[in-house]
């Protein structure tokens, strides 16, 4: 049955190999429960009701800290300092070339070998607002990135939405691009493929990629007439095996869409995800210019999830609100540079509802 009272609870979750404790926070509001841990800021569970009122966890994940450390494909975590890819793990800023940790073929992915997803964050609970603020100080040179960067990520739960507010300051010019990498399946964790989910993406354009390395070509291409046109809600699996040249690089979607927006600060609808079977609906709004749809292409039945089953290709999808991949090397993409004296700010809201139509 749906949760009926609001609360915030904390408990010990596990211990890192070096002895650092990791804690779990449970945020509850009527009809929704969210669990997160201080390791990587990972969302381990988001439970919402289906059309019959039955609660179900709609995110993929594990039961233990040890599994998250050993074999997580970025389940539910904060990714950065630079979410997504930077070509060849290099970028130039103020005439200085920086070399980053390489962890995705020749490229840097999601902040490097030990990115923000593998750090233990400090936590401050705010019971009055049903929120948890996570903080981490990333030292100058960590994973190759310049500047000492003070980061915060705040998870706030209301009766129908999870809001994530990101903030950062730096003592030296640097680049920053943060997101959350939750894998969603609105039918429930362990329910199988998401190909029958329907999705709308508020984007007239997307960024094509060069090859299987998923680095953008630099073009902002029209979605019209392609498998990337989700301007009206469409079954995810409708074109997922299309012969379109951009679809042959992977086993599904792993691209960035350019959101339709008039300014750089307001929340706009980025995506609407709907599972007709359960009736669950999730809307994603963000201040970011882009969103990456990743359809779990590399889940390969080698990981046992919290539901007890093996995660297979397409068993979950990610909707990563972000600046575009490889922006530091693409001057006409929106800038990801953060200067001393400025504050990086970004907000994404996941709103949940139920479609009662069978």
Domain module tally: 1
Task: Report the sheet-strand fraction.
Answer: 35-45%
Strand order of the largest sheet: 11-12-13-14-28-24-23-18-21
Class in CATH? Mainly Beta
User: Could you say which structural class the secondary elements and strand pairing correspond to?
Assistant: mainly beta
The strand count comes to: 28
Determine Rg (CA atoms, Å): 19 Å
Largest sheet: 9 strands, antiparallel
Number of alpha- plus pi-helical segments: 1
CATH topology term: Beta-galactosidase, Chain A, domain 5
Q: How widely separated are the two ends?
A: 20 Å
What is the general shape? Answer: globular
Q: List SSEs in N-to-C order.
A: EEEEEHEEEEEEEEEEEEEEEEEEEEEEE
List low-pLDDT spans: none
Kindly state the mean pLDDT as a whole number?
96
Tell me the helix content: under 10%
CATH architecture: Distorted Sandwich
Kindly describe this structure.
The strands form seven sheets. Strands 11-12-13-14-28-24-23-18-21 form a nine-stranded antiparallel sheet, with no helix packed on it. Strands 17-26-25-22-19-20 form a six-stranded antiparallel sheet, with no helix packed on it. The protein has a five-stranded antiparallel sheet with strand order 1-2-3-4-5, with no helix packed on it. It contains one helix and 28 strands. It has one helix at 65-71; strands spanning 7-15, 21-29, 32-37, 43-49, 55-57, 78-79, 85-86, 90-93, 96-99, 108-109, 122-126, 131-138, 149-157, 161-170, 174-175, 179-180, 183-184, 198-201, 203-207, 221-222, 234-235, 254-259, 268-274, 280-286, 290-294, 317-322, 337-338, 344-354. Helix content is 2%, strand content 40%. It has one domain: Beta-galactosidase, Chain A, domain 5 (Distorted Sandwich), CATH 2.70.98. The chain has 358 residues and is an all-beta fold. The chain starts with 6 loop residues before the first strand and ends with a strand.
């Amino acid at each position: 049955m749906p949760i009926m009272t609001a609360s915030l609870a904390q408990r010990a979750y596990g211990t890192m190999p070096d002895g650092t404790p990791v804690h779990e926070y449970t945020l509850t509001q009527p009809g929704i429960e969210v669990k997160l841990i201080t390791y990587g800021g990972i969302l381990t569970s988001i439970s919402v009701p289906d059309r019959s009122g039955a609660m179900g966890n709609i995110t993929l994940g594990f039961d233990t800290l040890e599994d998250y450390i050993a074999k997580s494909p970025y389940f539910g975590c904060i990714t950065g300092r630079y979410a997504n890819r930077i070509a060849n793990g290099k970028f130039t800023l103020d005439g200085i070339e920086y070399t980053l940790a390489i962890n995705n073929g020749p490229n840097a992915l999601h902040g490097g070998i030990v990115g923000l997803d593998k750090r233990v964050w400090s936590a401050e609970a705010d019971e009055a607002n049903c929120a948890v603020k996570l903080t981490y100080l990333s030292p100058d040179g960590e994973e190759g990135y310049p500047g000492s960067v003070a980061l915060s990520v705040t998870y706030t739960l209301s009766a129908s939405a999870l809001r994530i507010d990101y903030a950062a300051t730096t003592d030296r010019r640097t680049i920053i691009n943060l997101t959350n990498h939750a894998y969603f399946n609105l039918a429930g964790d362990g329910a199988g493929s998401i190909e029958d989910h329907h999705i709308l993406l508020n984007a007239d354009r997307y960024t094509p990629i060069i090859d299987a390395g998923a680095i953008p070509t630099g073009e902002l291409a029209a979605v019209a007439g392609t498998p990337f046109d989700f301007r009206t809600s469409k079954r995810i699996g409708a074109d997922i095996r299309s012969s379109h040249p951009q679809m042959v690089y992977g086993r599904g979607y792993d691209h960035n869409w350019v959101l339709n927006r008039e300014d750089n600060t307001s929340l706009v609808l980025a995506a609407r995800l709907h599972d007709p079977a359960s009736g669950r609906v999730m809307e994603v709004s963000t201040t970011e210019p882009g969103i990456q749809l990743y359809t779990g292409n590399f889940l390969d039945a080698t990981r046992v999830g919290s539901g007890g089953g093996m995660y297979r290709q397409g068993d979950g999808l990610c909707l990563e609100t972000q600046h575009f991949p490889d922006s530091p090397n693409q001057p006409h993409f929106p800038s990801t540079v953060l200067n001393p004296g400025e504050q990086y700010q970004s907000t994404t809201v996941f709103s949940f509802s139920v479609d009662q139509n069978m």
